[in-house]
Amino acid sequence: MVCRGSADKALEAFAGIASRMGLTINREKTRITKLTDGFDFIGFQFVKRRSPSSGKLCIYISPSKTAQRSIRRRIKYFTKRRAPITPAEFIEQVNQMMRGWVAHFRHTNASEAFRRLQRFINIRFRRYLNYRTEGRGFGWKKYPNAALYARDIIYIGSRVVEYPR
User: Fold this and answer.
1) Could you tell me which residues come within 8 angstroms of residue 133 by beta carbon, excluding any fewer than 6 positions away?
2) 38's torsion region: left (phi>0), alpha (psi -120 to 50) or beta?
3) d(CA 92, CA 160)
4) Is the overall model pTM greater than 0.85, yes or no?
5) Is the pLDDT of residue 82 over 60?
6) For the chain, which terminus, N or C, has the lower number of CB atoms within 10 Å?
7) Among 62-66, 75-79, 88-92, 142-146, which stretch is predicted with the lowest mean pLDDT?
C-alpha cells in the first residue's frame, strides 16, 4: 500500500479491512519503507525517482532482480551447450518462454531488463550452435546476431516482441 500520511495508521486500517474479509497479514513479510528506496512485489520492482526527461519524481515499475534471475535460470536449465535437442527445438522452447515473460512485463519500464535478457539468450544460443558444429571459441564471428535472428530466435525490441522475417 502506498500512502502519503502515517504508514502505521494506513497499515492498521488495511489490517482491519483484511480481517473483515477473513484474510491475515503476514507481519514478517510486511514492512514499511520509503518509495524512494523501492520495494519488490509479485515479481515487479516499484521505485520513485526523477524522470531524466522532465525532472519530476515518477514511480517506475520494472521486473525485479529475482524475476530476471529466475527466467535466466529457467533458460539455462534446458539450453545447455550439450543439450540433446535440435536447434529448432532449442529455438521453440526459448521463444515460447520469452513470449510469456515479455508479455507479463511489457507494461513496465523493462527496456534495460529486455536488453540484458536478449544478450543472454543470444550468447546461450551462439555457444550452443558453436558447440554442435565443434567450433572453437565462443562463436562470435561464425554466428553474429544477424545469423541468430535469421534462424528465427526471438528478438525483444523496444518493449514489444518482434519476430524476424
Assistant:
1) 142
2) left
3) 18
4) no
5) yes
6) C
7) 75-79
